[in-house]
Write a structure and sequence with these properties.
By secondary structure, the protein is an alpha+beta fold. It contains 3 helices and 10 strands, in the order H-E-E-H-E-E-E-E-E-E-E-H-E.
Length: about 190
């Protein structure tokens, strides 16, 4: 009887640890292939046949269908450069050199991956729609109220995710993703 109770205890403990760790990984997007550049994260194995099980599960749950790195790179940020979580109640300035590739876009998503609804119906800026600075760099405001220039509406007071996509990235960037000069996400004001 004692060995049966021990068996049930260890079986329950194993199930708790296994299911708990799987839930944690899916909720937090832990993977073995993450490359971090400031607040931006790139999953290098997403879209690859060799993706680790954690990356595969996270991608399957998110519903995204990522391309191989040679086709597109997807950088996500859930925090500003100062480490605070991105919030629709705050105002941010995203700035940096134009990403090196055939085409790029910066979009605002809810934590589940959907576009953040907003009255202006403006969801992203691309390399063809952004008004560049004189040196070719870009400056995009993300704020709850309208701003002059490149403005993405925050939509709501809740958390959001910024996604930077680079299609047809420079081959040097594919070989060494950590060399990416990531845009800065500066908190301008936050109540």
């Amino acid at each position: 009887m004692r060995s049966f109770v021990r068996f049930v205890f260890y079986l329950g403990l194993g199930a708790f640890i296994g299911l708990g760790s799987a839930w944690y990984v899916l909720e937090n997007g832990i993977s073995l292939d993450r490359v971090r550049m400031g607040p931006w994260v790139l999953r290098t194995d997403a879209g690859q046949p060799v993706a680790d099980p954690y990356t595969s599960a996270y991608i399957a749950r998110s519903g995204h269908i990522p391309l191989r790195l040679e086709g597109a790179m997807y950088f996500t940020a859930t925090t500003a450069s100062d480490g605070r979580e991105l919030s629709g109640a705050c105002s941010y300035v995203v700035s940096g050199p134009a990403p090196s590739g055939a085409w790029w876009s910066l979009s605002l998503h809810d934590p589940d991956g959907g576009l953040v609804e907003n009255p202006a119906r403006r969801y992203s800026f691309t390399s063809t729609t952004v008004f560049p600075e004189n040196d070719g760099s870009f400056v995009i405001s993300v704020a709850p109220r309208a701003r002059a220039g490149n403005w993405l509406p925050a939509g709501s007071d809740g958390p959001f995710v910024l996604m930077l996509r680079i299609h047809g990235p420079d081959p040097r960037l594919v070989r060494d993703p950590a060399s990416f000069v990531a845009p800065v996400i500066e908190t301008e004001e936050c109540p």
